[in-house]
Hints:
The chain is of the alpha/beta class. It is 42% helix and 16% strand. 43% of the residues are buried.
Amino acid sequence: MNPQDRLIVALDVAEPSQAFELTSQLAGVATWVKVGSVLFSLAGRKLVRDLVDDGWNVFLDLKLHDVPHQVSMTVDALGDLGVKLATLHTSGGPRMMEAAAKSAASASKEGLKLLGVTVLTSMDEDELRSVGVARTPAETVALRARLAQQSGLDGVVSSALEARAIRDIVGPEFEIVTPGIRPQGVQSHDQKRVATPRQAFEAGASRIVVGRAITQADDPAAAAASILANLQ
C-alpha cells in the first residue's frame, strides 16, 4: 500500500469551513480524510460529495447501528457519494453486518468498503463491564473481528493494542484501521487505548486515523508529513 494511503486525517472540526481550510493545507501531503458524525450532521451529503469531487478519499465514520433493514437502506443511501470506507458497529450482530455487506456489494457502490467498529478506543474494561460485557477489551475485539469477517465486512476498526491478535485471526488481506493514534509526546485526551503510528503498523494495522495531532498543529501539513516520513 502506498504510504499516503495508510494515513487518514480525521476532520473532527466544528464547522465545514474549517474542514475545507484543513484540506487546502493538506493537499499534496495527505490523500485520505475522515468525516465523522458531527461534521456530517452539520453539512451532510454535500460536504462529502465536495470532498470526493476535490479528489479526496473519504472515510465516512457514522458507526451505523440499527436493525438490519435500516442499516442496509442507509448503506444504499450512501452508495452514490463515492466514499471509500464506511463504518458500522459490530455489536449490531451478524444479521445486521450481513445485510450491510450485501448492500455494499451491489454494483452502484463499487469501491465502498465496510468496516466494523469493534470496541471504541475510549472504552476500557471497566466501561465494558458497565454495559454488561463481561469479556476484556481484547477478548471482545477478537470475537467481534471474527464475526465481522464471517459476515462479509471488509475490515474492522480497532485500537492498535488489539491489532496483532486480530491480524492473526483474519489474515493479511482484511483491513484493520486504527484510531487512537498519538505521535510520541502528544496528549491522549479522551482516548484510553492509544498507540504511536509505528506501534500501530508493527502490530498489523492497515491504516491509521490521526486527528488532533494534525488538525490542531501549528502546521497541519508538516505534522502529516512528519507522520508519513516515519512510515517509510
